[in-house]
Amino acid sequence: MAKKSKKQQQSGGTPATVALTAAGVAYTVHAYEHDPAHPSYGEEAAEAMGVSPDRVFKTLVADVDGSLVVAVVPVAGSLDLKALATAVGGKRAAMADPAAAERTTGYVRGGISPLGQRKKLPTVLDASARRHVTICVSAGRRGLEVELAPDDLAHLTEAVCAPVARA
């Protein structure tokens, strides 16, 4: 987890929620009890919140031609690495080393948010997000999600919107 400022510690916020508040973006926080035995962080979030898995998006970090890139895709599907590489003008993509993803974003696996990362990475938001009024993404720790408009997420992360998920 990224180091919290004194203001974040006092407010109980994460770097993601602090970034959303600072940007003046409307969002809703959803907290739930995380079960470490659950096989999927994203599916657990969807079940706990009672939200369709196609509206809950997971944040994945990939290595595209030697550079880290964030992909935000529905938990109901999987990441198409070839499509991700194409979306950012690269040739080859592979999932990033989990330790490198944690170190670079400042978040722990299962709690990586596309918002408020320690080092801002190029981001690709799956095009399916635009079919929804709101989507949910990690708020920066396991058991905490934020719900916001996909256009707000794309704007704040400077994301490219492209079809990078497979059903």
Structure in words:
Helices cover about 30% and strands about 30% of the residues. With about 170 residues, it is of the alpha+beta class. Strand 2 and strand 3 (about 65-75) form a beta hairpin. The termini are far apart. The relative contact order is 0.23.
Keywords for this entry:
single chain; 167 residues; alpha+beta; five-stranded mixed β-sheet; three-stranded antiparallel β-sheet; 6 helices; 10 strands; 28% helix; 28% strand; disordered N terminus
Write a compact overview of the structure shown.
By secondary structure, the protein is of the alpha+beta class. It contains six helices and ten strands.
Q: What is the secondary structure topology, with strand pairs?
A:
Elements: H1 6-11, H2 15-23, E1 28-31, H3 41-49, E2 57-64, E3 67-74, E4 78-79, H4 81-87, E5 93-95, H5 98-105, E6 123-126, E7 135-141, E8 144-148, H6 150-157, E9 160-162, E10 165-166
Parallel strand pairs: 3-6, 6-9
Antiparallel strand pairs: 1-8, 2-3, 2-5, 4-10, 7-8
Largest sheet: 5 strands, mixed
Please state the CA-atom Rg, rounded to the nearest Å.
15 Å
Q: How much helical structure, as a percent, in the residues?
A: 25-40%
Topology as a string of helices (H) and strands (E): HHEHEEEHEHEEEHEE
Name the poorly predicted regions. Answer: 1-11
Q: Supply the helix-strand structural class.
A: alpha+beta
Distance between the termini: 30 Å
The neighbouring-strand order within the major sheet is: 5-2-3-6-9
**What is the mean pLDDT?**
91
Tally of extended strands?
10
Counting H and I runs of at least 4 residues, what is the number of helices? 6
